[in-house]
Design brief:
This protein has an eight-stranded mixed beta sheet with strand order 1-12-13-8-7-4-5-6, with helices on both faces. Helices cover 31% and strands 21% of the residues. Helix 7 packs across helix 8. With 405 residues, it is an alpha/beta fold.
Amino acid sequence: MKRRPQMALIHMVSITLLRKPGLQCRFQSTQRPTVPLGSRILSDPSRVFEHNMWDHIQWTPEQEDLARQKAEENSSVKVSMEEQVKYDKDASSYWDEFYRAHQNKFFKDRRWLFLEFPELLPHRTHKYNEVVLESKNTSILCSHVSLQTQTKLVGISRTQAKKTFETLRNADSVERTIDGMELEHKTQDWKWTDRQKKQGYFPGIDSTFKIFEVGCGAGNSVFPILSKVRDPSTFLYCCDFSAYAVDLVMSHPLYNASQCYAFVHDLCDEASSTYPFPDGSIDVILLVFVLSSIHPVRMQMVINRLSKLLKPGGMILFRDYGRYDLSQLRLKKGRCLFGNFYVRGDGTRVYFFTKEIAHIFISAGLKEVQNLMDRRLQVNRKKKIAMHRVWVQCKYQKPFTNDLN
């Protein structure tokens, strides 16, 4: 009930600005594809309640000023330093309580992932991992076929098979014998023991395309990915520093240890900077609504560490809260830690970004592929409320050796 006046104000501001003569809704960035994204453009404000979401909303200077004033008002009263230390120290416990309270019902599965981030599909960036062997008019598409099997099925010599097999190896592959013996691994229970570490084993070692989701929560990205990407050559790692969240992921019926490995990890703990896979082995890192929960002074350290995990050509896919998003304007006085960094009522923290986030990724040695402000109009048609949502979406790539030279 207390939020209704704020909602009414946001609704009134939104509709008033939409009705201003000459207000245009157009693309925010030429970097954003028009198909399949960006298809719902609001050109007639009288039709605002016909759909639940409108794409690529451009704010007027008046709207920017109103949002800035509201944010400044929310930030006028700061959280005490003593409480700030408590929120920082006990961050994981607050997120544990969050997931205990909401289980996996708070967020919906992110079905939009593959529209925004088609790089998650292995065939988009790793076609070179598929090799066609042709002999005596017989073709075999092989990414994970052992040398022995290739020799039997295609009918080529061991020498020829060995040469062809060499093309299948990339940076994360390991030596395999000419006899075709695959490295032994466990498919039922991925347990990265000291013995396995010494021998070079790690979960997903044989996979040619590796995705790592940082801050997986209850699995709202994990399970859409596992459902969509059924390629056996793809492996998904996911972590969260809430042990309860990781338990939710591992207890899900779609969790499959032969395709996914979930583990507890604190990105901000420099002492525990090791991962269950080597540096330079990950193709795609998914960083969605995670960095905003980290203290700004630690963000650079986190991105520096994550960049080391990428293969040359690998990407970080980033999406998070943007400056003056509805969730920032709704915050009450006394929730601001400093700047645009706040604590919510449940003790979890959130930062609101601008495109200036670019300097963190570039300082980590990554190349910018995409950096845009995603402004949309979210509509509650039943209550006749129009709400402005703002997200920042970026893609940053680890350069190839040639790019560095």
